[in-house]
UniProtKB/TrEMBL annotation:
Signal peptide start and end residues: none
Alphabetized InterPro entries for the sequence: HRDC-like_sf, RNA_pol_Rpb4/RPC9_core, Rpb4/RPC9, Rpb4/RPC9_sf, RPC9
Species of provenance: Drosophila willistoni (Fruit fly)
Name of a matching Pfam family: RNA_pol_Rpb4
Assembly and binders: Component of the RNA polymerase III complex consisting of 17 subunits: a ten-subunit horseshoe-shaped catalytic core composed of POLR3A/RPC1, POLR3B/RPC2, POLR1C/RPAC1, POLR1D/RPAC2, POLR3K/RPC10, POLR2E/RPABC1, POLR2F/RPABC2, POLR2H/RPABC3, POLR2K/RPABC4 and POLR2L/RPABC5; a mobile stalk composed of two subunits POLR3H/RPC8 and CRCP/RPC9, protruding from the core and functioning primarily in transcription initiation; and additional subunits homologous to general transcription factors of the RNA polymerase II machinery, POLR3C/RPC3-POLR3F/RPC6-POLR3G/RPC7 heterotrimer required for transcription initiation and POLR3D/RPC4-POLR3E/RPC5 heterodimer involved in both transcription initiation and termination.
Residues forming coiled coils: none
Family from the record: Belongs to the eukaryotic RPC9 RNA polymerase subunit family.
Protein name, UniProt field: DNA-directed RNA polymerase III subunit RPC9
Length: 139
């Protein structure tokens, strides 16, 4: 194996998906059966993940907005790859137990997530909303 570039860098799931799509579309498939299987399986996973609705521009602006928080680069990468949708989700992605985020900071990070990744499904409605809807339909 040849080392092409010795610099270390993090890749988002979107970048990996784009690279795998490029590999998949190449015409040199002879002798690459194992690579084709890995590429197919990885693409299947990535196409079901949040990166399918992300763009490079959205990721760049999200990372820029997150720079005001004391987050490590790998924590930001985790937030890009698995965008937090709740305060608990945010805390699970952050490694710093000595200075946890405040509730306000958690809320702002979640707002940033929805702002930049608008294709992100906000998830099921809250229990209160579901109960209200149910009680209105029975009345």
């Amino acid at each position: 194996m040849e080392i092409v570039n010795a610099t270390q860098s993090y890749l988002t799931n979107l970048e990996v998906m784009q690279l795998l799509q490029k590999i998949k579309s190449t015409k040199k498939k002879f002798g690459m059966r194992n690579l084709a299987t890995v590429t197919y399986e990885a693409l299947q996973y990535l196409e079901e993940s949040p990166c399918k609705t992300q763009t490079c521009e959205a990721i760049t602006s999200y990372v820029k907005d997150l720079s005001s928080y004391r987050l490590k680069s790998y924590e930001i990468l985790q937030m890009v790859n698995d965008p937090p949708t709740s305060a608990l989700h945010t805390q699970l992605l952050i490694d710093d137990n000595k200075a946890p985020l405040t509730d306000e900071q958690n809320g702002k990070i979640i707002e940033l997530t929805y702002k930049h990744f608008h294709g992100l499904d906000p998830g099921p409605p809250s229990v209160a909303v579901a109960e209200t809807t149910q009680s209105n339909s029975t009345s």
